[in-house]
User: Which sequence fits this backbone?
């Protein structure tokens, strides 16, 4: 085998963020940039030689090039077997499923998630560990440390392999298997949900749905599951062919970027159910006819209805949500008498809770929901969960959510994003907020009294690790809340996220207010305490979800 050690110099910017290393494509195209990071992953691990690695990505620009390089580096570094998705395609949850099923030591997933793709768009590399989940902070820190001192990387000289044919080939001592990207994942879904019942419902003539894959990775998965296995009419899956630039769109399933689906569901003769997923298939948006389900409410509804679904019929061990996610699921947990955990933003923080069985369902306001079936959030899983509930309850999405609010109360919730803000200005805004925290408790703003104000810190209940500075929270005595944090996934400047939440108890007459109107007082308080306009130079958010 022809192994070369190529001399290189460290790059100073290879610190993984909320979800892997995400940069603009030209950054990854710099000489040795990708190779340095991949070698740093291998250098930070022990005990992987001779074992299995899962490899694939969301099909965005640079996916195929990177896969060929990584295969040759895996061979040079002594990986025993690499499972790579056909065409280089693997959704993030499918990769997690494969890692677990094949007892792989980990997976490398190539994706910048919901960020746009194409030659000027974003690219990313995530490393997942043997439980199938995103590498925890201690692993990403070790990779970063390795990237700061790297002097060379190893690669074999070999021809590119054919990624478009199911095959088993040798690359040096390493076996490379090009595998079906969809089958194992689809089988796992079929083991969790009542496919017979969903199929009957889907073909009953009483129900119509539309799924928008946004030209990203879920197209082939959604077609196989919804149209082939569940009998949805052909054409249910829109934009189902993954494209390198996602058709020029922004593969983020929210009200702004999935606008075609939103228009359809809010238009005349709308279908009963609409859903979309993101670049790498881990996010989801759920819509009913003329109705948007917030991700926080979606998590709460899934938790409250879990026993209707075969895979969860025995109930939930516990639930978990990220700190900025609304407390809607907390109220369900309280009623069910199960624990509810509040973690920092980032799916990696759910890993330990899922591994030791403290939580069964997890969710985030950023359109992520999932369970212990894999160790990633899972867009299509959430869609199938909703379909299973709809098939059993035979009510509209809106009726199900309204009944939920009647039982548990409504957590009005919204997120305001200020994108591409100057980094120093964003840091100054956060510092200014932090400097006010000690004096805030007891202060009143209009009708609201501050109960607590802090910078969220989390101690993992399983391994005791502590994660500090995870977002500034200002909580009021009536249960309302404002949270500020800077995104860890953006690639241009800084993105300020402002999360707003207010609680209206179980009086249905109070559940019809427009969300931004219901939150208007808190939007103003946020401006007063953080001086967002002054610091960002913007007079309104760039995205409201
Ligand atoms: C990633 C993480 C999520 C997180 C989200 C938002 O999602 O996996 O756990 O909630 O980023 O992060 P931020 O607010 O820091 O931008 P994805 O779908 O981009 O992998």
Assistant:
């Amino acid at each position: 085998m022809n192994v070369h050690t190529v001399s290189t110099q460290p790059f100073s910017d290879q610190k993984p963020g909320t979800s892997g290393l995400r940069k603009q494509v030209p950054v990854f195209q710099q000489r040795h940039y990708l190779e340095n990071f991949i070698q740093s992953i291998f250098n930070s691990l022990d005990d992987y030689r001779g074992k299995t690695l899962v490899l694939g990505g969301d099909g965005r620009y640079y996916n195929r090039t990177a896969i060929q390089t990584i295969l040759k580096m895996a061979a040079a570094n002594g990986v025993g077997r690499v499972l790579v998705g056909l065409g280089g395609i693997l959704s993030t949850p499918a990769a997690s499923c494969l890692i677990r099923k094949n007892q792989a030591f980990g997976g490398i997933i190539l994706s910048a998630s919901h960020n746009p793709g194409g030659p000027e768009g974003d690219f990313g590399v995530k490393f997942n560990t043997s439980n199938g989940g995103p590498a925890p902070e201690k692993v990403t820190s070790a990779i970063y440390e390795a990237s700061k001192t790297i002097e060379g990387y190893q690669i074999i000289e070999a021809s590119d392999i054919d990624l478009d044919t199911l095959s088993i080939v040798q690359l040096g001592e390493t076996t490379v298997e090009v595998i079906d990207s969809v089958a194992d994942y689809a089988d796992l879904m079929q083991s969790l949900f009542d496919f017979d019942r969903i199929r009957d419902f889907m073909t009953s003539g009483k129900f119509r749905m539309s799924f928008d894959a946004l030209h990203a990775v879920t197209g082939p998965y959604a077609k196989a599951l919804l149209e082939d296995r569940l009998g949805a009419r052909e054409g249910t899956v829109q934009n189902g062919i993954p494209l390198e630039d996602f058709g020029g769109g922004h593969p983020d399933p929210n009200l702004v970027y999935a606008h075609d689906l939103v228009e359809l569901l809010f238009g005349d003769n709308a279908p009963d159910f609409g859903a979309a997923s993101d670049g790498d298939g881990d996010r989801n948006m759920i819509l009913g006819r003329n109705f948007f389900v917030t991700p926080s409410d979606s998590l709460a509804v899934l938790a409250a209805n879990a026993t209707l679904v075969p895979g969860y019929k025995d109930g939930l061990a516990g639930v978990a949500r990220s700190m900025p996610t609304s407390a809607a699921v907390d109220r369900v947990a309280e009623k069910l008498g199960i624990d509810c955990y509040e973690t920092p933003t980032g799916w990696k923080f759910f890993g330990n809770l899922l591994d030791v069985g403290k939580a069964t369902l997890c969710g985030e306001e950023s359109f992520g929901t999932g369970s212990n079936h894999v160790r990633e959030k899972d867009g299509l899983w959430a869609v199938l969960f909703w379909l299973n509930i709809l098939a059993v309850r035979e009510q509209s999405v809106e009726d199900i959510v309204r009944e939920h609010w009647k039982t548990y109360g409504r957590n009005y919730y919204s997120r305001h994003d200020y994108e591409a803000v100057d980094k120093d200005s964003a840091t100054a805004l956060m510092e200014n907020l932090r400097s006010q925290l000690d004096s805030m408790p007891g202060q009143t703003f209009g009708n609201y009294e501050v109960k607590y104000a802090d910078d969220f810190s989390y101690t993992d209940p399983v391994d005791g690790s502590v994660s500090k500075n995870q977002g500034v929270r200002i909580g009021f005595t009536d249960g309302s809340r404002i949270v500020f944090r800077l995104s860890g996934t953006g690639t241009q400047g800084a993105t300020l996220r402002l999360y707003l939440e207010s609680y209206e108890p179980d009086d249905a007459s109070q559940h019809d207010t427009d969300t931004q109107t219901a939150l208007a007082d808190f939007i103003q308080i946020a401006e007063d305490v953080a001086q967002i306009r002054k610091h960002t130079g913007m007079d309104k958010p760039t995205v409201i979800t």
